[in-house]
Amino acid sequence: MRTGSGRLLSAPLFPKEENSMKRTKRRLKWCGAALALALCLLCLLTACNPGGGETNHTEKPSGTKTEAPSDGGTTGETEAPEPAGHYVSIVEDGKSDFLIVNTGSTNATVAGAAKRIQTMIYAATKVRLPIIEPMEIKDEDRLIVIGTNGGIDAVTKETRGIGVGEYGYCLRDNILMIIGCTDTTLANAVTEFTTAITASAKNGALRLEVGERGVFFNQYNWLTNVPRIERSYSDIYDSGDGTYLLHYRNAAVTACDELEGLLEAHGDFTKTQGGVTETGNRTATYVRADGEVSYLWQKNAKALQVIYQCYTGNCVTIPSVKPETGYTKIGENQLALLPLNYTESCKDPTDCSGFSAVMTLEDGRFIIIDGGYTTDADALYNYLADHNRRADGITIAAWVLTHDHGDHDGAFKVFATEYGKRVNCEYIISNALPQTVKATNENWSPSLLTGLQANSCAYFKNAETKTLKMHAGQSVWFCNVELRMLFTHETMFPSVPDWINEASLVFQLNANGQTTLITGDCELGAIDMVSRLWKNELKADIYQINHHGYSAIPQDFIDLVDPSIALWPTSQTTADKRSQSSWRGGVYERLLERVDECIVADGQAKILTLPYAKDGTAEYYTMDFAKRNQT
Q1: How do residues 130-152 score in pLDDT, each as one tens digit?
Q2: Were 373 and a residue from 345, 362, 576, 613 both cysteine, which residue would form a disulfide, CB within 3.0 to 4.6 Å?
Q3: Among the listed residues 143, 151, 156, the one whose alpha carbon sits nearest the alpha carbon of residue 103
């Protein structure tokens, strides 16, 4: 049935009949035949199942490619026996009555699927199927539909009925559906369907095996054999790198109890961290050998986000969820905001941004945050070499990359290749926007984490660098420093970032009784969400100004953070311009009036020994941007 706008509300079972009496008589005949057939089948089933118990439903559905759990519980693909007789003739005798529905998508593979399928069918059969828009659909049409964007209820219902990691194609009444729960799995389904077209076309005809249930596959790198709460999730998000998120709207906090109970009963998960935060949010992380399940219940939004992460590539579990012990203390915790090589990286002296900060741990290891432009790699290495306290050489405990913009991660890419073999790097912490998701206002996809997964082990001297893909609400400890993640692109879901800046990590570094808040380039709607989510928990002694002071930030966010020390990651000329009353309504002018000290990333680096107060213990370091021949 269609509304006046032509949108299909439910999948048609039969063509329309103008005479309602004829339609009623036909249905009565069909009902009688169906009843007789049902009685025959009942007799047969009783004969086959003489014990009177339930029919065995444990076998795999016919005609599907189904998951095969490995020892670790992740999935591979195995092909079930193909039944005879379940086919659909798309092209026969040089003709076809199928139409392809152009449903559109932000995923490039899916967006071009209708044209691609049309081209492949024409190449195999010389029959060109028409492509139509969803509003052109008529009740009697036979359709090939890719995904749920067309608003066809039958396709949406079928998609909801498959497993989270399943994808494939099936025939339901007059609709040949290509389905998957996420953009990634739907793109995989399109690939499998086009492969089947090539394999099935013969002598100008196209007769496709569809099985009784359909032909389905499983996302190989997703965590499987895991419990889910009974209620239906509202949305699903492929977070990339073997991770997916189930979003539950209007979820009571009791849903957390239900999920934890299921995970505890499952037997192979161990709870490593979690609890109720000061704001009333609730978090937990459960870990097993091949992956983890974590959740964040947002009190303000009454929303539950459950993240299922498979440890793919170099991704591993959080190494320490409490303060480390057993290390030798060789110095105090120190924090430095590093000036950048603005002369080489900036064309406009009033618009020189970028971010690089280093925390030195008590055992002499470093935590690096971003690193700046490609032109800052040499200076970053020189800083580490000049401040190394360890006899075994430079060791980076963690390199945190907030997002994939060149003024933040450019140095990492050069440093890794130029100096990687001179240093040890234990962990890279990142949770980048996946390549399948494009920020609304930026027509490109980041590739940062994908590259890390493939190459990070080979970059550094120890050849054992691992990736921590952290989620909001999780913490990791290095010596006596806690890194607490507050926000990632996942936290925004089901909203999509307008800008990649909104996908920046936001986290706290807690050391020696002081909190440092790192915001990267987080701005606009994302920073509003951070404020609503964490409220007074955002209080910090040291605060890195969002997006270099370029974008306006809400006054209530500043009030919640209420910092004593501000870190301004720009040149002095840029900071001077943006701290004027005429800039962004004067929000940064008011910020500087309330803080005890503002440290600008220009001139000498100021190294703060923690805990730090204005005019407290600090060292000064002159940045050396030249390449050295150190080993």
Answers
A1: 999 999 999 999 999 999 888 89
A2: 345
A3: 151
Q: Are the C-beta atoms of residues 275 and 193 closer than 8 Å to each other?
A: no
Q: Locate 159 and state its tokens.
A: 């998609």
In 3D space, the residue among 551, 570, 568, 431 whose CA is nearest the CA of residue 499 turns out to be 551
Confidence tier at 449 by pLDDT (50, 70, 90): low
Cβ(504)–Cβ(519) under 8 Å? Answer: yes
Residue given tokens 């030249």 in the structure block: 626
Contact between 317 and 287 under an 8 Å Cβ cutoff? The reply is yes
Pair 270, 193 in one domain: no
| pLDDT bracket for residue 68 (50, 70, 90) | very low
CA atoms within a 13 Å half-sphere pointing along the CA-CB vector of 347: 0
Which range (360-364, 461-465, 580-584) has the least confidence? 461-465
CB 500 within 8 Å of CB 448: no
Q: Which of 253, 312, 412, 258 is nearest to 70 (CA)?
A: 312
Q: What is the pLDDT of residues 310-326, one digit of tens each?
A: 998 888 999 999 999 99
Q: Which residue has the higher pLDDT, 418 or 6?
A: 418
Query: Which residues fall within 8 angstroms of residue 494, CB to CB, at 6 or more apart?
Result: 234, 235, 237, 247
Rounded CA separation 563/482 (Å): 19
> What is the distance between the alpha carbons of residues 382 and 368, in angstroms, rounded to a whole number?
13
pLDDT, tens only, 339-356: 999 999 998 988 999 999
Contact between 245 and 490 (Cβ < 8 Å): yes
Pair 584, 462 in one domain:
yes
**pLDDT of 277 higher than 70:** yes
Structure confidence by residue, pLDDT tens digits, 565-579: 999 999 999 999 999
Identity of the amino acid at 624:
D
Helices in 353-430 by DSSP H: which ranges? Answer: 377-386, 406-419
- What domain range is 381 assigned to? 334-617
Helix, coil or strand: residue 138: coil
Is 327 part of any domain? no
Tell me, what's the pLDDT at 603? Answer: 94
Which residue is associated with the tokens 């396709």? 155
Provide CB contacts within 8 A for 147, sequence distance 6+: 103, 105, 110, 155, 159, 178, 179, 180, 186
Residue 468 sits in the same domain as residue 368:
yes
Q: Is 315 a member of any domain?
A: no
Buried b (16+ CB within 10 A) or exposed e, 315-348: bebbeebeebeeeeeeeebbbbbbbbbbeebbee
